[in-house]
Write a structure and sequence with these properties.
The complex is a heterodimer of chains A (about 375) and B (about 240). Chain A has about 375 residues and is an alpha+beta fold. Chain A has helices spanning about 1-15, 15-50, 70-80, 115-120, 125, 145-150, 180-185, 195-200, 220-230, 240, 245-280, 285-290, 295-330, 340-360, 360-370, 370-379; strands at about 55-60, 70, 90-100, 105-115, 130, 140-145, 155-160, 165-175, 185-190, 205, 210, 235. Helix content of chain A is about 60%, strand content about 20%. In chain A, strand 7 and strand 8 form a beta hairpin. In chain B, a hairpin with a 2-residue loop joins strand 4 and strand 5 (about 75). Chain B is globular, with a radius of gyration of 18 Å.
């Protein structure tokens, strides 16, 4: 590997120049990893806040007051689809109820289902701030904002009035906080039998079938597919209901890609100009090597190897620097946790090396074409 | 065709070299033909700008003639591809220039070994022993670990000669090889050339504008205005 050996010696002969270009690449790659990780983590955090405890896809009757029939075929389809997040298919019955404490009253949407199935979507155990997560017979879990508004605590008993004028008495087993004040204020969880009795529905009739997906952004495609598979029902998905959020996330991603793109262009220009200067500086040496019989191909490879060495060293330096930057960032109080994706780091490093190699095209071609006579005649 | 006891090495046949086109065309060489035998010790003389370096570049396969051919051991160099010409140059030809053109990034050992690295003709052990043998031939024992920048002018030129001899070429083409040296080192270099020529049978073709130096060789080819005007044995020159 003579071209590699020559490339290494050329780089070692100009240590300051080589160190500066490695530092330049390292700063660029560190910036890319840092900015990319922040944006991805921020997006994940926003997504988790917005849809982490909500259905990604909801199946319901076209007329919302009608029940949807949760047939064995639908059960099989939803539970065996690998795109559906395991343990998140939750058939839910909902009914509205009125709470009154004598001086004040509020409407409450009761979501009735099996705790194990609801847990997959709403993560009630982790989000219970008082009492415990339980919706057995006669039990209810209230939202934090509702409980605060009416001064209700876990262990209290409340009475609710249903649209058919029935009333029910419930023991507050726990208070939850899903991070959304409106949801906490307007919804409560009970066993599925409560709304079923009020509505008079059979065992396979539900208000909604809610579920989450392994890849939330696949929701449009999947909802469309199920709409065709299950005619007579309405299949909605989170992206259609959160267009503003989605536009914000896309804008954020685009700006992140633009920043990363400009950083890469800056790296490429830096390497290209330095290698071009290096190629001019080493013209004499390359000319003499060619006079000794070094063919055009291997002569050109010298600068390709230089770029590869600089790219690898700079990218590794960039990865180390990005760990440092993220460590510093974690010291600052933020509302989200930054995580570095190993795949993203690897791709960033590969991009760094790739950009370095691309930047060597001009000096490589120039060196390949160099006529040794130019060097010999010009001394 | 010349009579060569050890065989014919180079045939230069009707070489023309024109730089530029149309009215700006410059005829650097005009219809130059001669043969060079294996093991010959010859010089090319001529005024500055007469075309002697152009001729050397053509013979060294660094450049191609506008017309005519250069043949090495019956191989027409013009019929070869660029990589094949580079390979032929690496194996058959050694170059010594007025400037030493050593690679400052490499040690003396690596500079001398470079033609072998390029040609990949010797293994690591073979390269090492060949470098030591060549350095010893040139009185440079113990210098292999030094950097080229640590040597004197005379030493650098001897290292450049060692490099030219590394692949045991059939011919060394030397372009004003002592142009930058003092009289003592000039004499030393010519003695070395002659000694190597006699000991190894390597042919030497030395370009010089200094006739007294040329007269130390066996044959003088004189170029004037791109034309070969004389091709004489040195004994004939001295006889005149």
């Amino acid at each position: 590997m003579l071209p590699l050996r020559i490339a290494w010696r050329f780089l070692r002969s100009s240590p300051v120049q080589s160190a500066l270009i490695v530092a330049g690449i390292a700063v660029g790659i560190a910036t890319q990893i840092f900015v990319g990780s922040i944006i991805v983590s921020l997006q994940n955090s926003l997504l988790e806040t917005t849809i982490g405890s909500a259905a990604h896809v909801t199946i319901q009757a076209i007329k919302q007051s009608d029940p949807v029939r949760y047939t064995p075929e639908m059960q099989h389809t939803l539970n065996s689809d690998p795109r559906v997040k395991s343990g998140t298919v939750a058939p839910i019955r909902s009914v509205s109820a009125l709470y009154s404490n004598g001086s004040d009253s509020a409407s409450l949407g009761l979501l009735g289902g099996d705790l194990k199935q609801l847990e997959g979507i709403y993560k009630l155990k982790a989000r219970t701030v008082s009492g415990h997560a339980s919706i057995g017979s006669g039990e209810i879990m209230l939202g934090k904002d509702f409980a605060d508004k009416f001064g209700i605590k876990a262990g209290d008993t409340i009475s609710l009035k249903f649209p058919n004028n029935q009333t029910g008495s419930f023991s507050v087993s726990g208070i939850f906080d899903l991070g959304a004040a409106q949801f906490n204020l307007r919804n409560a969880f009970v066993t599925g039998a409560v709304p079923q009795n009020v509505l008079g529905w059979s065992n396979d009739q539900f208000t909604q079938i809610q579920l989450q997906l392994n890849r939330p952004y696949d929701s449009v495609k999947i909802a469309d597919q199920w709409s065709q598979q299950f005619p007579g029902v309405s299949v909605t998905e989170w992206q259609g209901q959160n267009k503003s959020l989605l536009a914000g996330l896309i804008s954020q991603a685009v700006s992140s890609y633009m920043i990363q793109g400009f950083v890469l262009v800056a790296i490429a220009l830096g390497i290209a100009s330095t290698l071009a200067i290096a190629a001019v500086q080493k013209t004499r040496q390359i000319g003499i090597l060619k006079a000794m019989g070094l063919a055009d191909g291997p002569a050109g490879q010298v600068f390709l190897w230089q770029a590869a060495i600089l790219g690898v060293a700079g990218s590794l330096g960039g990865i180390v620097a990005s760990f440092g930057l993220l460590g510093l960032f974690r010291l600052a109080p933020t509302s989200f946790t930054i995580t570095m994706q190993p795949g993203f780091v690897a791709v960033s490093a590969l991009i760094g090396v790739g950009v370095a190699l691309l930047s060597s095209i001009i000096p490589t071609r120039r060196t390949s074409r160099l006529d040794p006579i130019e060097v010999i005649q010009n001394g | 065709m010349a009579e060569c006891p050890d065989g014919l090495l180079v045939e230069a046949c009707r070489l023309d070299k024109v730089y530029g086109e149309g009215e700006a065309a410059t005829h650097a060489l005009k219809d130059v033909s001669f043969d060079l035998c294996a093991g010959e010790f010859a010089a090319i003389v001529g005024q500055s700008g007469s075309g002697k370096s152009t001729l050397l570049n053509l013979l060294g396969l660094l450049d191609s003639p506008t017309r005519g051919t250069v043949r090495y051991h019956d191989t027409d160099a013009e019929a070869l591809s660029k990589p094949e010409r580079a390979q032929l140059r690496n194996g058959l030809i050694g170059f010594v220039f007025q400037a030493h053109y050593l690679l400052p990034e490499f040690s003396v050992y690596e500079n001398v070994a470079m033609p072998a690295f390029i040609g990949r003709t010797l293994g690591e052990g073979g390269t090492r022993s060949r470098v030591e043998e060549t350095l010893s031939m040139l009185g440079l024992e113990g210098m292999s670990g030094k950097n080229a920048n640590e040597l004197s002018g005379g030493q650098k030129q001897r290292v450049a000669i060692a490099r030219a001899l590394m692949n045991r070429p059939s011919i060394v083409l030397a372009d004003e090889p002592t142009g930058n040296l003092d009289t003592v080192n000039t004499n030393l270099v010519y003695k070395l050339f002659r000694q190597i020529n006699k000991e190894t049978g390597t042919a030497f073709l030395i370009v010089t504008h200094d006739r007294s130096i040329a007269e130390r060789t066996e044959r003088i080819l004189e170029i004037s205005d791109g034309t070969l005007v004389q091709d004489l044995r040195t004994s004939e020159v001295i006889g005149r």
